[in-house]
Amino acid sequence: MCEDEAPLPSERALNGEVLGARRREAGAGLRVRVALAGDLAGRVRPQDTVFVFARPVEGPRMPLAVARLRVADLPAELTLDDSSAMSPQLRLSAFERVVVVARVSRSGDVDPQPGDLEGQSGAVASRGAVALAIDRLRE
Known about the structure:
By secondary structure, the protein is mainly beta. The protein has a single domain, classed as Immunoglobulin-like (Sandwich). Helix content is 12%, strand content 38%.
């Protein structure tokens, strides 16, 4: 081997590169940036629970992927994907368009309650990115 020649990569390294490329092509899921609107900051406590979830635009209302945070974690960036699925039969990757919701729950209960704070996206691609503001009071 000459001095300027780089060594050939191992088969294992090549397989890792191919696998990584396939994952990138398939999409790593939905990247979500979630923040609390400044005018609502006085209505929450740092320990309040924040649920971030994606549900299909059409079809069942059950969330496809869910993440749980605390208000103290906001603003936050996270990825929703098949590993955060609520059910193995309903995976995020099986749907092209979803709606993303972020809800602050004072009680820590996943079911929406009057007085919870919430933000919701419009329909977005299930592989991509979305920014979401928790900006309204749930009546």
